[in-house]
Design brief:
The protein is built from 14 helices and 17 strands. By secondary structure, the chain is an alpha/beta fold. It folds into 3 domains: 65 residues, Winged helix-like DNA-binding domain superfamily/Winged helix DNA-binding domain (Arc Repressor Mutant, subunit A), CATH 1.10.10; 117 residues, Alpha-Beta Complex (Aspartate Aminotransferase, domain 1); 236 residues, Aspartate Aminotransferase, domain 2. Strands 4-12-11-10-9-5-6 form a 7-stranded mixed beta sheet, with helices on both faces. A 4-stranded antiparallel beta sheet has the order 13-14-17-16. Strands 1-2 form a two-stranded antiparallel sheet. A hairpin with a 6-residue loop joins strand 13 and strand 14. Helix 1 crosses helix 3, helix 6 packs across helix 10 and helix 8 runs parallel beside helix 9. It is globular. It starts with 14 loop residues before the first helix and ends in a 13-residue tail after the last helix.
Length: 465
């Protein structure tokens, strides 16, 4: 346990905010490092001369800011992914070189060139009534944009009608719409023990509590899900079923049926995030198809076409559309009609599927490059996935490996970026498609291979960057 007793006399306002602000400052000044265990509520209250309740409120505020996390019975710790959560001063300038090879962001490799976009804009401009795209429109989206969304989802195994589609400003916004409509602050959402970081940020924003469920090679353990539903009464289950982020597995149909049955038994809503299913050779039936009355299906064109369009599709159960449309209204009023029109144009004229095939071929080639360079190490991935999970040999820890890689101009995502528990797998996620050139990816992978053959350096007091 870290002996941490901040000086809160310099901070104005309520004492709980003073403690949270002091904690933020000490992390930024590296007096506290990622992974440090904080004093118990009672110990810190005694040292500072405040009530235990004040410390509890301070820790809750620091957790809301994304700085700390904890487990019942194990204590409270400084989170390992602080470089993504603190303002820029936390990162020393020399650790962000211009030639950084960034394998930490799951971008698709650019496939839509200038001419493709120009052609689409010309086609849109030639239609009558083009100026209507500059008007206010229904929160759920224009009718033909919703029809295109239903058509797009059908390409990958999810069949629904346009009246059940809500057009959103990307996949993250679709998640905001559905989770915001289903929950209230303080509610519990269950998810994978290693989950998409965007879900963690969304839970911070909506002030929800996330509970991580144990995983095996087929996904969430149904028995653990059943126990959580009985003991915690969660409002929703959020999960990635196809090419899981970060572990790369795809949940088989038998497990999907089990999970759906547990949710049906307890009346727990299902939010299925399927951003990567388009990369599979064969798409299993969506999890939500086994409990359609509970199912909410999230998709977007950010990974399949290009991220800058910011167009997502949320498919909801029959009826009850208004609650989700109202979240769209409260956040963006509506998805941008012009970008939704571009996505619709590409879906209708076949450009979308051509881009999908190009993205998939590129991802397969990059996965083969990983096997060529890192194949002797523990890897978890789908052959067409955008990312791979690299298991680390002893004595490497994820935070140490991420730090040493960053000092060699390669950025990766350590397990703490995704983990909701302290006993997560020891590994890092590598995103393969963000570097535009495969040669850049090769250099990054070769740097990591050389690092794996070394022992960790001792860098006491340094945080993950």
């Amino acid at each position: 346990m870290t002996i941490w007793a901040p000086d809160i006399s310099q901070y104005d306002g309520p004492r709980y905010l003073a403690i949270a602000d002091a904690l933020t400052a000490d992390i930024r000044a590296r007096r506290l490092a990622p992974g440090d265990r904080l004093p118990t509520h009672r110990d810190l209250a005694y040292r500072l001369g405040v009530t235990v309740g004040t410390v509890t409120r301070a820790y809750n505020e620091a957790e809301r800011r994304g700085l700390i996390g904890g487990e019942v019975g194990r204590g409270t710790y400084v989170r390992g992914d602080l470089a993504r959560r603190l303002p820029e001063p936390f990162q020393a300038a020399e650790t962000a070189p211009q030639d950084l090879i960034d394998l930490s962001i799951n971008f698709p490799t650019p496939m839509s060139g200038d001419e493709l976009l120009a052609e689409s804009l010309r086609a849109i401009a030639e239609r009558s009534g083009i100026a209507r795209l500059m008007d206010y429109h229904p929160h759920a989206g224009l009718a033909h944009h919703r029809e295109a969304g239903a058509q797009w989802l059908a390409n990958f195994g999810y069949h629904t009608t346009a009246d059940r589609i809500i057009v959103t400003s990307g996949g993250q916004h679709a998640m905001t719409a559905v989770i915001g409509a289903l929950t209230q602050p303080g509610d519990i959402v269950v998810t994978e023990a290693l989950t998409y970081p965007g879900m963690r940020r969304l839970a911070d924003f909506l002030r929800l509590r996330l509970h991580g469920l144990p995983l095996d090679d087929h996904g969430i353990d149904p028995d653990a899900l059943d126990a959580a539903c009985r003991n915690l009464a969660p409002k929703a289950l959020y999960c990635v079923t196809n090419i899981h982020n970060p572990l790369g597995y795809t949940v088989p149909e038998s497990r999907r049926r089990e999970i759906a049955e547990v949710c049906r038994r307890h009346g727990v809503k299902i939010v299925e995030d399927d951003l990567y299913g388009f990369l599979l050779d064969e798409q299993p039936a969506p999890l939500v198809s086994f409990a359609p009355e509970l199912g909410h299906y999230v998709n977007s064109v950010s990974k399949s076409l290009c991220p800058g369009l910011r167009v997502g599709y949320l498919a909801i159960p029959p009826e009850g559309q208004d609650a989700f449309a109202q979240v769209v209204r409260s956040t963006t009023w509506m998805a941008t009609p012009l970008t939704a029109e571009i996505a619709t144009n590409w879906i209708e004229n076949g450009t979308g599927l051509r881009l999908v095939h190009q993205h998939k071929a590129e991802a397969i080639a990059r996965q083969q490059l990983v096997q060529d360079i890192l194949g002797s190490w523990e890897l978890r991935a789908n052959r067409a996935g955008y990312h791979v999970w690299l298991g680390l040999p002893d004595p490497w820890t994820p935070d140490n490996f991420a730090l040493e890689a960053r000092l060699r101009n390669v950025a990766v995502s350590p397990a703490g970026t995704f983990s909701l528990t302290r006993n997560s797998l020891s590994g890092v996620r590598l995103c393969l498609c963000a570097p535009v050139q495969k040669e850049t990816l090769r250099r990054g992978l070769e740097t990591l291979a050389a690092l794996l053959r070394q022992r960790p350096a001792s860098r006491a007091g340094m945080g993950v960057v």
